[in-house]
Amino acid sequence: MANIHIPVSVLDLGPLRKGESIKQAIDSMVNLAQATEEMGYTRYWISEHHNTASLISSATSILIKHILEHTEKIRVGAGGIMLPNHAPLVVAEQFGTMANIYPNRLDLGLGRAPGTDMLTASALRRSHNEDSVYSFPKDIQELLQYFGSAKDQGHVKANVAINTNVPLYILGSSPNSAYLAAELGLPYLFASHFAPRYMEEAISIYRKEFKPSHYLDSPHMTACLNVIAAESDKEAKRELTTLQQFFLNVVRGDQEPLVPPVDNMDELWSPQEKAAVSSMISVTFSGDKDSTRKQLTNFQEKYNVDEIMAVTYIYDQEKQKRSYEIFKDVAEGK
User: What contacts 232, CB < 8 A, 6 or more positions away?
Assistant: First the structure.
């Protein structure tokens, strides 16, 4: 079996562990960022979620600034900023400011979903109509202009953002986002970690429809997926139950914190719930180093993506870091 060599990155949704305060959860995020930077991960992205008691990633740009401040070289970014919730000018001013403080270390992933329920979305949105969701392509063009050269600016400028050229990524969980990323000639990241159903179709569409642009000569495809790596397959199977319980909360509409692994998930879920959770997390690498290597190799032989962004829900923080360490070794062909 040929060794795979692929850049790997981290997506952190900012889970709140059982018994942990919000401050401790933020400190855990910093700790993981520093550890994965030391391991040589390419980028560390933080998501945006609102009105979710189990996640702390609501003020995304503030958390990004905090991680940038406590790391030295890893790229840090948003996975992503949900544009329906924000005026592009404000996003450009925030990220332009950070790009000046931390040059060449900032990424901006952009999503179309509000990252919450509809009632909370109404409270968040910059307008009380649906235009902010459907204006996503126009909002991206505005951001590209704000981050661009002085000669390309209009009357309204994000002055701190001019010439920062913060890289934009289109995030998605459906074929629609693939068409948009291809049309704009921007890098694309698919959310296989919770919505794998359209992954294969979206990857195919993006590559087939891609139009070279000022920003990118050829398609750059990233798959975001779950990784639970451990010293043995048995240990990984047990640690996987934390991820399963997290998504069981999603299926049930609960907002419980991240909990320790259990011996038997069948005591916790019904057959229908098991099927729903298994479908949501079907794109998960789980096992020891050899098992993880086989899964990565099989995945790459089929999809050949340019980068993998790993989400690792493990309750024990040292085991979480060890999982990222194992996966980084696998990605380097070690």
Answer: 288
Q: Is residue 78 a part of any domain in this protein?
A: yes
54 assigned to some structural domain: yes
Q: Do the beta carbons of residue 185 and residue 210 sit within 8 Å?
A: yes
Instruction: Give yes or no for residue 128 having a pLDDT over 80.
Output: no
Is 271 part of a structural domain of the chain? Answer: yes
Spatial distance between the Cα atoms of 17 and 25, rounded to a whole number of angstroms: 7
What's the token pair of residue 58?
Answer: 């609501």
Tokens found for residue 55: 């996640």
H or E segment to which residue 75 belongs: strand 75-82
CATH number where 77 lies? 3.20.20.30
SS3 230: coil
pTM: 0.94
* Helices (H), ranges, the chain: 22-39, 60-69, 88-101, 118-124, 131-134, 136-146, 175-184, 199-209, 233-252, 271-280, 289-303, 317-331
Residue 51 gets the label, from left (phi > 0), alpha (psi -120 to 50) or beta, of left
Strands 43-46 and 8-12, how do they pair?
parallel
The residues facing 15 across adjacent strands are 55
Residue type, 326: I
Q: How far is CA 231 from CA 109, 274, 323, in A?
A: 33, 26, 9
> Nearest to residue 304, comparing CAs of 194, 229, 227, 200?
200
Query: In this structure, are strands 43-46 and 75-82 parallel, antiparallel, or unpaired?
Result: parallel
Could you give the number of structural domains in the chain? 1
**Hey, how many other C-beta atoms are within 10 angstroms of the C-beta on 135?**
17
- pLDDT at residue number 124: 67
30-34, 115-119, 174-178: range with lowest mean pLDDT: 115-119
